[in-house]
Structure formats: C-alpha cells, structure tokens
Amino acid sequence: MYAFIKGELVHASPSTIVVQTGGIGFQILIPANVFAKLPQTGTSVLLHTSFIVRELSHTLYGFLAIHDRELFEILMGVSGIGPKIALSIIGHLSINELQRAINNADIPVISRVPGIGKKTAERMIIELRDKLQDICPPDPSELSIQISDPNAQKIRDAMNALINLGYNQMTAQKAIKKTIQDMSQDVELALLITTSLKNVKKKRCCVLPLIKNNKTGTGTKAQQYSRGAGCCCCFGEAFGNCYPKAFIREIDVDKSR
Fold first, then answer.
1. Based on the domain organization, do 147 and 170 belong to the same domain?
2. Most exposed: 28, 44, 197, 212, by fewest CB within 10 Å?
3. pLDDT 10s digits, 219-234
C-alpha cells in the first residue's frame, strides 16, 4: 500500500521514528541499525516501507535501503518468523552477512540474533538458500581479484551458470577465482564454466532427512535438504555419488537395501 514515505523527520528513537508529510505524522518502526544512519530531526528523510495489517494493529516498517525491505518481506515467509523477529534480524545482520551465514549453514551466527534459536536458524537455512540471490545478486568484485570491465559480464554469467546448477554463491566464487588465477581473464565463457566446475570441491553436506512410510509399506521416502555448501550427497552412504543440490529432491529408498 505504501511503497515509500518521504517527509520531515520530527522524532527518532532506536526503534521508532515519526515522519511528517502532507500534515500527517506517520509512526514507523525501524531496525536497530537504521537509527545511527538517520539525518537530524527537522530534515527530510525517505524510507521504503512495508505495511503489515494484523487483526489488532496496522503497522508501518521502514528501511533506508529497498533491498532491506525486500529482505524483510522474504524473512516473514519463513515459518515461525513474524515482523518483530524479521526486523531484529535486519537490525543485527547486513544482507551480505546473512547471505554468507545461509550459504555456510552458520547456525551460531544466525542464532546470535535476539529471538532466533537453533531450530529457527535451521529453518532459515533451508527456506532461504535460493531466495536471497534475487535481492543480493553475485558481484564480481567479491572475487577479490582485478576484473576489467570487458570481462565483468562474463564473470557474472559464469557465476550465474554455477548457481543455476545448484552451487551456492561462495562455492561458485572460489571456483571461478581459482580458474582465472590458473588461466587468465581472457578465457572463453564456456571454458571458464567447465573449468570452474572441475575446481568445485566435492564435500559431504549436512542433510536433514524427513522420513515417512509410504502407502505400500515396502520402503520409505526421504525428503532431503542441503545445509552445506555446493552439493548434497545421497541419503546415508548407500549411494556413492555426489550431486548438486538442484538435482536432489525426493528419493525412494527400498528397505531391502
């Protein structure tokens, strides 16, 4: 309903501000890290807003950056996370810090946020793994190597290719960085992708299996979710292969094996 509100900042506290525009004062809740970035009272401010309607309240939440508002709305899609906890997450972790923690399945980092326990952190890792890329796209500058402008798009294309194959951003970055260091920035895109795939280190991930008996009773169905970086291994050690997580969804396992 309200994409943004621009007006005079008439009051500010670590959790709430009041913005006056058109003769109306809007009370807006903000993350903890926004307060220090606000201009002085009496000056103009613009906040990107999310309007949350509940049975007993209509509340505005405001953010200085549009990607923080988008993150706020994505976080509320996670089971067990409401506006209050979503605001707390954004106030304690930047979007890049949260993305690294999700990619690395770093439960201790996520659990440091007030209101987030181990189980909620695990759900966030499962449910947000592929969603943050949309609002925080790969940046070639994060490779920590000098990339000339003509090659920047090629690096982005290579990273997107690896990510679409199921590898997370950090794994793709490391693989592409090694490829460029071993070869050169002038390498063709196709060779860059294939060589980077060879540089991806295969390692066993943490897998959260949900086991339930099927109707026939002759086997079980395991819904598997990768919590590690880069790949997702088959259930247990009954299978010897390791696949990108994009290819692991549901596996029927015969009890007789």
1. yes
2. 212
3. 333 334 333 333 443 3
CA distances for 99 relative to 83, 102, 106, 133, 196, angstroms: 19, 5, 10, 8, 22
pTM: 0.57
In the chain, the percentage of residues whose pLDDT exceeds 90 is: 39
Kindly provide the residue ranges of all beta strands, DSSP E only, lying in 22-70, ordered along the sequence.
Answer: 24-29, 44-53, 58-63
Distance of CA 69 to the CA centre of its chain: 13
Domain ends where: 107, 133, 159?
A: 133
In a domain, 205, yes or no: no
Domain identity same for 219 and 230: yes
Give 111-132 pLDDT, tens digit per residue. 999 999 999 999 999 888 778 7
Torsion over CA: 162, 163, 167, 169 (sign): positive
Q: Which domain holds residue 158?
A: 137-199
Judge whether 85 lies within some domain. yes
Q: What residues does 62 pair with on adjacent strands?
A: 49
- The answer to whether residues 72 and 120 belong to one domain is yes
In the chain, how many domains are there? Answer: 4
Token digits for 211?
Answer: 């086991």
Q: Which pairs count as long-range contacts for 65-69, CB under 8 Å and 24+ apart, including other chains?
A: 67/95, 67/135, 67/136, 68/31, 68/95
